[in-house]
């Protein structure tokens, strides 16, 4: 019996353990931290051996295969040891993809991948396909493969998940954009991060498709210098394309194999130019999978957007409160500031992943009237923006941040939570941060 060791007892780890058990592996789950109660119950139910609070090396290095949770960096000593012993270390998407013949749509990028994934899933489901949505969003891909049967999987995939693939290949890959993010995991080398994102296409063949943002200079540059076998389908809001999706006279036009689909950009419920791009990517996937054009148009009208992503919470005394907690990097926050047309009270801060805030300076000068810092260490934000904001306040909790925002805002303003940072200093994750913001706003 082959031995599968799963490092990390979270969503992807437990899903992999269930699938591994189903496929006849001897499975052991090891988590250096604590495993949540709900996951322990699942592991017990499936009679899977586990440990928490430690990694017992002898029980790990004897594995035939190791699945490493995306949160564990490559440089950890245990991972290095497994590599030196030539034990294969793979990610959950690599492991799970071996056990399904479904059509895989893989979506990655620094920003927009969640919205694009949810939109794509919505379009395909509306078109009557049997779709499962998984990966970096919602349920674990492995658990879905073990317990449900789908014809198509729409997977949101992070660069960390792509770091540990060998043969994984989506039939349709989407690359929304590439901006500096998670550089702490890539030795602060942007090139390493770019290469990680492009792994989504490395196993694709001429039969497969790569949909990408043709306005993204980083992507264009990489494609110029590297060979991709997949058929390229670009999208752009700035230029007319022979094939792919583009914007003309406020219409989204998609042309694939001389089949043309047009739709007014006003059909989108979502605001902002970046969402036009997300819509282009999703509608290109829908067209490749033969969804009726009328269905696509109708589906865009019913799509509600993503929680914690430019989510309008409440209007209080004519001040709009917006939850953009999912903005964990500078580029996401750039989109958020860009999409608001009223004066902004900006709540920002958290765990900095090597951020360069300079790109935000013009927007902050033009639109932001007050900055509310929300983090354990706000020095960098104070250094960069302290001299240009009329008011800058440091706070240590969400309730305090929202009270300060309420104090300094006036009729017609927008209070925008768009932190540009990870949330782990004060919150469990960005969802927890967003929920606390919404709760604090409702308490006003």
TrEMBL record:
Pathway assigned to this chain's UniProt record: Cell wall biogenesis; peptidoglycan biosynthesis
Lineage: superkingdom: Bacteria
Catalytic activity: UDP-N-acetyl-alpha-D-muramoyl-L-alanine + D-glutamate + ATP = UDP-N-acetyl-alpha-D-muramoyl-L-alanyl-D-glutamate + ADP + phosphate + H(+)
Family matches, as SUPFAM superfamilies: MurCD N-terminal domain, MurD-like peptide ligases, catalytic domain, MurD-like peptide ligases, peptide-binding domain
Enzyme class: ligase
Domain Mur ligase C-terminal: 308-421
Cytoplasm among keywords: yes
Domain Mur ligase central: 107-286
Keyword Ligase tagged: yes
Subcellular localization, as worded in the UniProt entry: Cytoplasm
Keyword annotations of the record: ATP-binding, Cell cycle, Cell division, Cell shape, Cell wall biogenesis/degradation, Cytoplasm, Ligase, Nucleotide-binding, Peptidoglycan synthesis
GO molecular function term, any single one: ligase activity
InterPro entries named among the record's database cross-references: Mur-like_cat_sf, Mur_ligase_C, Mur_ligase_C_dom_sf, Mur_ligase_cen, MurD
Binding-site positions, ATP: 109-115
Listed EC numbers: 6.3.2.9
NCBIfam families assigned to the protein according to its UniProt record, in alphabetical order: murD
Family: Belongs to the MurCDEF family.
Task performed by this protein: Cell wall formation. Catalyzes the addition of glutamate to the nucleotide precursor UDP-N-acetylmuramoyl-L-alanine (UMA).
Protein name: UDP-N-acetylmuramoylalanine--D-glutamate ligase
